[in-house]
Amino acid sequence: MTTGSSSKSGPAHKLVETGITLLITLFGVIVIIGSLKAGINWGAEGPRAGFFPFYIGIFIVASSAINLWNGLRENNDELFAEWGQLRQVMSVVIPTAIYVGAMPFTGLYLASMIFIAWFMRWLGKYPWLTVLAVALGMPIVTYLIFERWFLVPLPKGPVEEWLGL
Amino acid sequence: MEELVNLFHGFAVALQPFNIMVMIVGIVLGVVIGVLPGLGGANGVAILLPLTFSMPPTSAIIMLSCIYWGALFGGAITSILFNIPGEPWSVATTFDGYPMAQKGKAGEALTAAFTSSFVGALFAVAMITLVAPLVASFALQFGPAEKFAVYFLAFCSFVGLSKEPPFKTIAAMMIGFALAAVGLDSITGQLRLTFGFTELLNGFDFLIAVIGLFGIGEILLTMEEGLAFRGGNAKINLRVVLQTWKELPAYWITSLRSCLIGCWMGVTPAGATPASFMSYGIAKRVAKNGSNFGKGEIEGVVAPETAAHAAGTSALLPMLSLGVPGSPTAAVLLGGLLIWGLQPGPMLFVEQKEFVWGLIASMYLGNIVGLLVVLTCVPIFAAILRVPFSIIAPLILVLCAIGAYSVHSSTFDVMLMLVFGVIGYLLKKCNYPLAPLVLAIVLGDKAEEAFRQSLLGSQGSLGVFFSNTLVSAIMVLGLIALFWSVIQQGYSRLRGAVA
Question: Which residue on chain A is closest to B419 by alpha carbon?
């Protein structure tokens, strides 16, 4: 599955790691702001709601600062991943995002069938018969196990309504 | 003595036909989960947790804990046959297990791995049986300060003992605490950190985080590596099993040492993975034929497997007796207790005797069932791995989505799961540990509550955490754990200076 032909290029590990450390710092700052809004001092019933998360936020920012410093000092010219590898990753992330985004409208079953079929057909290049068997079989098994035997309701869309399930 | 009586009652509970069935189903599911990439103990249990909502709590915990044992067993199969660790704690098993398989001794390696797992688990369960009630009755006297000190110790051991850089561990942990704080503040009833988003009112559920971070994140990592499974055939017959069993007692010292390492690392939340590496490393240094390690020594399979299973099992000791889980999977089980309406912690041993002892008894039985299942069904499980990843991957993704949805019947959670998945992938690539993050989400509220209650009692003075011998001792232990690597460095430097 690896794309061996493309030359070894991709984003540098250092760059990505710095970016992530900065994002974590940002997250810490957001936590601090949110805590300040909730109140970090003492109220009638002791420490107020923002008291604990405020210090957590401080810890996040402080440890990220150290991680940033350590990361920049390091002599590391490795790649984070090759472009081909990242393409592989994105070929899962993007369809999964569409799948997840469609679920509130189509229900779980229809979305899952299309998702499984897409995955097997495009990434696995299976014959349509195999694709159909798995894509139809899995949701049916899921329906039986979750909704019939264990009584766990799953999201349904117009198709299920039409079928009267 | 009372414990023995309780344990017998526990066996009576665990041996009910329904519970036996649940046990077998759990083990089989667990091994499958352990074999499949992207489905590990923690998120496997998280996905299947909703299935247990309608069961009695004792059967539910038996099923989920058996999934956990199954996953521990399953990890070894892929390590030995395919050189692909199904679980992080079986990485060390590949070092000697895979070379053995290449030499045509896959059966011996698998038998040794399963048997050692079994021995490790049994040792740990015996320890839990003896120690857990004592710890629990001791912990009943804990006030808020002592409770916070225990959480402090747990999280400090993460920082000191994990192989990731300490400040990354701290950052990951604090992210978890921050996520736990989002939503309704349990003490004042005030909203915080929601920034006006109604979806965040109830905060982040750690089950969603577990499914995303461990499940989706792992799938993404596997996609990046572009795995193709190639591996030897698994054949275990009775002759090989008996022959290997004859050999194994010779390694009893390694076994015992690995059991002790495993139990220690499991109780402190360092977990099964470091335990297996540590046990392998020490066995390699101490063993007579240590230089042959890595070329297919059976002792090199015994050491990590025993330790990993002992650690995985003993992680339930602090979960049951203190309410502090020793591993992500134990954390998910703890989440299960809360959902079934049980309060984890020392009171469990007083109020829910049947539940606790049923669970402990099921650990004995579950591991026996597990050993039998894996020994007899290895070829079937190995065949699962020959199903190509492009079929397995979408099925696992759909399963993760179902699991995430059914926690609160919310499609927003499913989106959140994907976000956690991408975050998990990025954090893992940048060497941030995920286990402390998850544990912090689980324990965040409780740790905060204990912290604030202690401060309330002391009018805001931090001195409350050093106000008596007990709490000071736990805090000092925590500080030692926190600075463990620094202490170790200083010690070796000191020795170097003297010599």
Answer: A97
Which residues lie below 8 Å from residue B450, measured CB to CB, with a gap of 6+?
B144, B145, B147, B148, B151
Phi-psi region of B296 (alpha: psi -120 to 50; beta: other; left: phi over 0): left
Q: How far apart are CA B496 and CA B499, in angstroms?
A: 5
- CB-based contacts of B486, cutoff 8 Å, min separation 6: none
DSSP state of A79: B
Global pTM reads: 0.85
- The rounded distance, in Å, linking the Cα atoms of B433 and B439 is 11
User: What is the DSSP-derived secondary structure letter of residue A7?
Assistant: -
Question: Exposed, middle or buried: residue A5 (CB in 10 Å: 0-12, 13-18, 19+)?
Answer: exposed
Decide: B138 and B318 in contact? Cβ < 8 Å.
Answer: no
Written as six digits, the tokens of B214 are 């461990």
Cα B347 from chain centroid (whole Å): 23
Residue B160 CA to residue B485 CA, distance in Å, equals: 6
For A107, phi then psi, to 5°, come to 85, 170
Q: Given an 8 Å threshold on Cβ–Cβ distance, is A1 in contact with B226?
A: yes
User: B368 phi and psi, to 5 degrees?
Assistant: -65, -50
* Nearest-angstrom CA–CA distance, B71 and B84: 14
Can you list the alpha helix ranges (DSSP code H) found in B248-347? 252-267, 272-286, 299-314, 316-322, 328-339
Q: Rounded to an integer, what is the distance from CA B126 to the centroid of its chain?
A: 18
Which two structure tokens, joined as six digits, stand for B114? Answer: 């399963």
> For residue A50, which amino acid is it?
G
DSSP 3-state of A106: helix
pLDDT, tens only, B200-210: 888 888 889 98
Residue A43 or B414, more confident: B414
Q: Amino acid identity, residue B79?
A: S
What residues pair up with A156 in beta bridges, in sequence order?
A107
Count the alpha carbons within 13 Å of A141 in the hemisphere toward its beta carbon. 9
Q: Which residue type sits at B371? A: L
Q: At what angle do helices B91-102 and B106-139 cross, to 10 degrees?
A: 160
Which of B32, B229, B397 would you mutate first to test chain A, the one with the most A CBs within 10 A? B397
- Which chain A positions have a beta carbon within 8 Å of B414's beta carbon? 100, 103
Domain encompassing residue B112: 2-498
| Domains held by chain B: number | 1
Q: Does any CB of chain B come closer than 8 Å to the CB of residue A100?
A: yes
As a whole number of angstroms, the distance between CA B156 and CA B270 comes to 10
Q: How far is B388 from chain A (nearest CA, A)?
A: 8
Percentage of residues of chain A with pLDDT beyond 90 = 44
Interface with A, mutate which of B159, B184, B204, B398 (most A CBs under 10 A): B398
* B184 phi-psi bin (left φ>0, alpha ψ -120 to 50, beta other): beta
Single-letter amino acid code for the residue at B304: P
- Measured between alpha carbons, how far is A27 from B64 in angstroms, rounded to an integer? 34
pLDDT digits (tens, 9 = 90+) for B80-124: 887 777 667 778 888 888 888 888 888 888 899 999 999 999 999
Written as one string, the DSSP assignment of B84-141 is --SSGGGHHHHHHHHHHHHTT-HHHHHHHHHHHHHHHHHHHHHHHHHHHHHHHHHHTT
Among A94, A108, A93, smallest CA distance to A143 is for A108
Structure tokens at B215: 């499940």
Q: Look at B409 and A153 and tell me if their CB atoms are within 8 Å.
A: yes
Length of chain A: 165
Place A3 in a pLDDT band, splitting at 50, 70 and 90. Answer: very low
Residues in chain B: 499
